[in-house]
């Protein structure tokens, strides 16, 4: 028999009854029932119940073991009685009567519990991640992650893509975040950068004639952490295709993405035909470019109902601000003063002066609007708003006014808040959609200049002609995102492949030809030697897994994440370099000045 096991702790079934087996694993828990010990033994594959009674030769050893000790057990498989079958375990119809038990490793007092799923301080969980990973939910999440990645690889291969690996040590690239820099010992004073994404390399692969490329790519960005983005590193399903337009990318990737969600959705419905929503429409209807389409609330522009009305706050905005608008956030079933007051208090907590509202009720067979706004604009305008929004008695509506560029995000948050508070969101499905027609440029208020709105390597709609003849802030890009349940899960675009377009596009943001050639020389040179039209996208592996398993943040689907301060508490990183290491790199650390 094998030194440690003949079976795993998840393998034994009723058909094995009567056989002698050897299993090894961690002591999940010990229960003493009238002198008979029941030990749940756990490994990666499952849990098996071990029974040790006082007549067993190993009973003295069994009495000593504690939670998370590692033991080997030899024993006989016996069927459980009908009354003691555990239907929650695949091994629940049997138990192993221990004849011999060997302690392979003892465990000190645990700094956090492994049995059960209690909340525990995150820093403790990350410092002792090897224990945290033994917990059932987290362990299952990580296994699901590996299966999702395997499914991605298989589906991409079936779709005609070939996996290629691109360099990790590379040059700095403007992907929208800070680079992690790696000092060069051979070239003192110079630095490599860890790739924020394989963007330039995958475009160069298209120029090199490889056509359909993909990889599960590690990406590195030195940015602040948040719930849907980890500090340091993350992984994406990266891909690129030659001789394609936008619809070709969608046609290739919709079956892949839909298939992944359907495979791991555990029966939850998944969108079959992904709608295409222009960016401007998404902002107007949902207040965000990553809308949660499970929320049925759709915002609308209701400016005309307030123009010249008795509600002077809104009327003056519309009269005096050429960009001024009034947007409505419908709230079906929210037609009570108590709910409207709660929403108003929430808005004030967000730093807003308040949140105007109307709610409708039925009085003597007539539908009437109530609230300060209704009183000021009168019944005719109030009814026109209700009819435009398709609302009924018992419903409400909230309003945001001003420059939509400034209030759209708040209005979107109000939409989300109302949907959740009123329990309108269908949480048991995956709603996917493409967001298209992103702005190519945006205005950087801090720098007081035009900057790229998204990926600088995207082809502008209209090509060189648009760059030469249109207001930059009106130009749209062949840029698209895939969103699901309020998260961006993929982003991509049809790339620019023409050197003159590249020079003009970067020139508008203030980078002249010399700078472009210096910073992006490889790509710029490649475009002079026959570059095919190409496009692609990158899907966030971590974020997709987070959605599929229902986790609240990415640390629940990642093996060894950093904490909120971008520190690896398990391995003690980042850490100071030794004087010898610094001398080799010809670097010196300047002490921080104290305040």
Produce a short descriptive summary.
30% of the residues lie in helices and 24% in strands. The protein is α+β, with helices and mostly antiparallel strands and 595 residues long. The radius of gyration is 30 Å and the shape is globular.
Profile the largest sheet.
8 strands, mixed
How many helical stretches?
Answer: 17
Shape: globular
Average pLDDT reading: 95
The SS-based structural class is alpha+beta
Q: Care to count the β-strands? A: 22
Rg value: 30 Å
Portion of residues in beta strands equals 15-25%
Name the strands of the widest sheet in spatial order: 6-9-10-22-21-20-17-11
Helix content: 25-40%
Give a written overview of the molecule.
It is a single chain. The mean pLDDT is 95. Helices cover 30% and strands 24% of the residues. It is globular, with a radius of gyration of 30 Å. The protein is an alpha+beta fold. Helix 4 (136-158) packs across helix 16 (541-549). The chain contains 17 helices and 22 strands. The strands form five sheets. An eight-stranded mixed beta sheet has the order 6-9-10-22-21-20-17-11, with helices on both faces. A five-stranded mixed β-barrel has the order 1-2-3-5-4.
Sum up the structure in keywords:
595 residues; alpha+beta; 8-stranded mixed β-sheet; 5-stranded mixed β-barrel; globular
List the helices and strands and how they pair.
Elements: E1 20-33, E2 36-43, E3 46-52, H1 59-64, E4 70-79, E5 94-105, H2 122-127, H3 129-132, H4 136-158, E6 162-163, E7 181-183, E8 191-193, H5 199-207, E9 213-221, E10 232-242, H6 246-264, E11 276-278, H7 279-286, E12 300-301, H8 312-320, E13 325-331, H9 337-349, E14 356-363, E15 366-370, H10 372-389, E16 396-402, H11 404-421, E17 432-436, E18 441-444, E19 449-452, H12 463-469, E20 479-484, E21 487-494, H13 499-508, H14 513-519, H15 521-526, E22 534-540, H16 541-549, H17 579-585
Helix pairs in contact: 4-6, 4-16, 7-11, 12-13
